[in-house]
Structures are given as structure tokens and as C-alpha cells.
Amino acid sequence: MKNHNVVILMAVTLIIIILNTLPFSIPIRGSAELKREILEDLISVDKPELFDEYGELYLAKEKSQAVIQGMEGWQVTTNTKEWVDLLLELIADFEEMVELSKSSAPSDHLEALAIAESINSTLIKISHYETAKENEIPMLAEPALKRFYRSEGIFFENLSRNEQETRVKIEYEKISSSSYKEGGLYTIRDASRMEFEARKDEWIYTRDMDRASEYLNATRLHLEHARNPASGFFGSALMEIIKAKDSFEAATSIYAKHKDRELQNVAGIQADIRAVYLKLMLETLKVIGIYLLILSFFTFIIWRDFNRWSGDLDDTRLGEELIV
Predict the structure, then answer these.
(1) pLDDT tens for residues 84-125?
(2) To the nearest whole percent, how much of the chain has pLDDT over 90?
(3) CB of 266 within 8 A of CB of 255?
(4) What is the C-alpha separation between 43 and 46, in angstroms, rounded?
(5) Which residues neighbour 41 within 8 Å (Cβ) at sequence distance 6 or greater?
(6) Residue 297 phi/psi, 5° resolution?
(7) According to the 3-state scheme, what is the secondary structure of 22-72?
């Protein structure tokens, strides 16, 4: 008898182990109470403004409600509640996203696009539930999201058209392109067009920034030579500071063209150029003043000697006239 009990215990244990390793679980029986709770949640969702603008979401909600109503109580399980909760979460996120997109601030639209990514993930999760997938619940809500992406593509394209700062303009063009891509086949050509615009502007911007960097390097080099001239030739330092000034103006004109923030960062170099330039100008004026003083001194001596010689010559001529 004891051996018989041991055998039974071992058999039960083995069955439990096998059941735990099977790739499926025993179906969970639902209830009419859970069905009633889910229907109440669906019916309570009333968002007229959102549903007027995105009727696809209303259809998805109504279809879900019809599906649940058509199910027997025992068929409505926690699994059913999970995908319905995901749909309700999607609608709530959609409402927040649309509200943000009504703002004129680009930061709000970027936040809205982040929510759109979350909604896209939610749609994928819902599609993993057989009942939702069979009744095309995700497919009903998906066009609403694509339409939202298309509107964001238009918004950021318009922003890029009016943006003066090239770096930000390129960023807007890229966001517009990616939004158009998410918008589906209707805007795939717009996505390609904005991607081309972004690449073209980025190429021009990179080329110009490289040139500006070269001008700045030349500016720094000429500025250093102006501070510590290698040649003892008078005026070499002044020539160097003029070259530094010209190179700096060339660089800043490029930054100004692109309305680039780097223009603010190079203000210190301009101050250095001005300080060295004023110092050299004062030194030059001082040297010129000394030269003029020396020249005036010699001119005075020559003028005095000339007057003296002229006076002696007049005296000689006067003496000759008296003798005659």
C-alpha cells in the first residue's frame, strides 16, 4: 500500500512537471461580470472633439464594443480586458497628442511625436491579441495615426520654410521627412522630397562651416603674428592684423548667412583683433609722429641754412653793385 501511494505521488508530480513545460496554458474562463465591466469602460469613453477629427478611433471603439457584446460571458476573460485597456490607453494618448499638436511651439509637436511612437507600440501590442486582430481593431485605429503623422509632416515642412537658422532648418526638414514616411503611401513622395532638401542643405551648411573654420584658423594665425611679428620690417604687424580682420569678417559673414549660434562664440576674437589693432595703430602713429618731428627738425635746419645762404648772397650782390 505504501509503495502504491509513492507511485501515485510520483505520477502526480510528473504530470504537474509536464503541464508546466507545455507551450500552452489552460484557458481562463471568463465571466458575465467582467464583460459588463469592460462594456462600461468602453461606453464611458466620450470624446466628441477627438472622434469628430479622428473618426477612425470612434469606429475602433464602437467595433470593440460590438465584439464584446457579441461574446458570451465565459468568453470574456482577463485577456480580453487587456487588449480593451490598451485600446482605451491608446485613445487617451491620442487625445493628449492631438492637444499638443494644436500648439505653435515646435517643442510641443516634438512631444506629440514622442507620444505617437508610444501609440504605434500600443497598436502592435493590440495586434498580438487574436480577438482584436481578427476583428481588425488595430487596422481601424492605424489610419488615424498615419493621418496625424502626415499633418506633422506638413507642420515641420512649413517651419523649415520659415526658419532662418540653417542648423534648425535641417532638423525640421528631417523631422518632416520622417513624419511623412510614417504617414504611409500618400506622402512617401513628400518624404523623399524633404529628405533631399535636408541632405542638400546639410551639404551646403557643412561646406560653409568648413570654410568658416578655415577663415577662423587664418584669423588666429594672423593675430598671433601681429602680436609677435617675425619680421622687423616696419608695418608688418599692422599688415598681419589687417589680414586677421579680413579673415574674421569672412568667417562671420558665413555664420551670419546661416544665422549660426557660433557667431556668438567668436565675439572674443573680435575683441582681441580690435585691441591689437588699436595698439598697433597707436604705435604706428607714434612712430610716424617721431619721423615727422625728425623731418621737421632737419627741414628747419635746411631752411635756416638756406635763408642764411640767401642772405649772404644778397649781401655779396649788394657789395658788387656799390663797387661798380
Answers:
(1) 999 999 999 999 999 999 999 999 999 999 999 999 999 999
(2) 60
(3) yes
(4) 7
(5) 84, 85, 88
(6) -65, -50
(7) CCCCCCCCCCHHHHHHHHHHHHHCCCHHHHHHCHHHHHHHHHHHHHHHCCC
